[in-house]
Amino acid sequence: MTEHHTHEPDADPEIDYVEVDLDPEAHLLCAALWSRDETTLRFLFTHMREDNFENPFHRPIFTAIGDALAASQPHDPTIVAASYTQAGRDKVPIAVHNALRTVLTLGSSTASVGQYAASVVAASYRSIYFAARAAFSLST
After folding, report:
1. What is the pTM of this model?
2. What is d(CA 83, CA 92) in angstroms, rounded to the nearest whole number?
3. pLDDT for 103-121, tens place per residue?
4. HSE-up of 41 (CA within 13 Å, CB side)?
5. Nearest partner of 65 among 92, 38, 102, 85, judged by Cα
6. DSSP per-residue string spanning 112-136
7. CA distance 25 to 13
C-alpha cells in the first residue's frame, strides 16, 4: 500500500494556510489567465507587485502574465507554459509548471479578477504589518 502525503499546514499558528481551492492568489492567476479584459488586467498588473504573492511559485506566473500584457501579447495558459518551456528548467523550475497547471484548472470567475487582486494585496499588506509589528516588539 502506497502512503499518501499531502501538503499540510505548518504547526506555527502565525502561518496562514489556505487550500488551493480557496486561495485568492491562485484564483487571481486563474482568472487572469482566462480573462480577455486586458484593460482591467493591465491596471491590476501595473499596480501589483510580484512580492504581493506569498506563494513563491505563483510569482513567476504573475510576472509572465504581466510581461505578456505589457508587450500586448497573449497571456493565456498555453502561451505562458510555452514561455516557461522556452526558458528552460534551469530558469523555471518544474514546481512553477505544476503551479501553473493547478491554477489554470480552478475555474475562477474572470469577472471577479479585481476582487481576487484586492484580497491578494490586502493579505500582503497584513503580512508586512505583522512582520513589522513583530520586529518592533523584539527591539523594545
Report:
1. 0.80
2. 9
3. 999 999 999 999 999 999 9
4. 28
5. 38
6. GHHHHHHHHHHHHHHHHHHHHHHHH
7. 20
